[in-house]
Amino acid sequence: MKDTDYAPRAAFMDTFLTGQNLTGAEIGCDVGAHAEAILKYCDIKQLYLVDLWLKEYYRGYCEGRLHSAGFKNNVLLFQSSSEQASIFINAPFDFIYIDISHEYETVKTSLEDWWPKLIKNGLLGYRNYSEANMELKRAVDEFVLKHNIKTQVSTYHNEIVLFK
After folding, report:
1. CA dist 15 → 27, 31, 99, 109 (Å)
2. CA of 57: how far to CAs of 3, 35, 67, 70, 146, in Å?
3. Other C-beta atoms lying within 10 Å of the C-beta of residue 87
4. How do the pLDDT tens digits run along the chain, 164 residues long?
5. CATH number assigned to the domain comprising residue 84
6. Partners of 126 in the beta sheet?
7. Range of the domain at 145
8. How many domains does the chain have?
């Protein structure tokens, strides 16, 4: 479990990543705590990391942490917005994990932008899904209803997993 942003953690979605040589994306990765855990505990061939990294040293910490942990060849870092990255990253993804702004329009846009990039039976995880984040929850709920998506929610982790 997550104790701090400087210690690896396992997210709820990670428990569903049972395949081999997976390709995924983490949108909003901060200093790379979740990225490190996912690379350590799951069989990840390539992990695309997207973040604005408004504090440049956060990107440096993220990159340094992952390279020193032996994952230099498994990660590609993109310093951009979710919306911009979704335009130029066209890999087919086994999973996508989103942990960015909680505003309704941002959540709605990120779901619409990234969902088509998932392979059949792929997973999309969204962090901070709870009554405390009503805009985020409303956007996710509307998207799930619109596309008739099967989901699973972890109230302990405040995450929702969408199954394609």
Report:
1. 18, 21, 17, 26
2. 21, 17, 15, 20, 40
3. 10
4. 334 444 455 678 888 999 999 999 999 999 999 999 999 989 999 999 999 999 989 999 999 999 999 999 999 999 999 999 999 999 999 999 999 999 999 999 999 999 999 999 999 999 999 999 999 999 999 999 999 999 999 987 889 999 99
5. 3.40.50.150
6. 98, 160
7. 13-23+30-163
8. 1
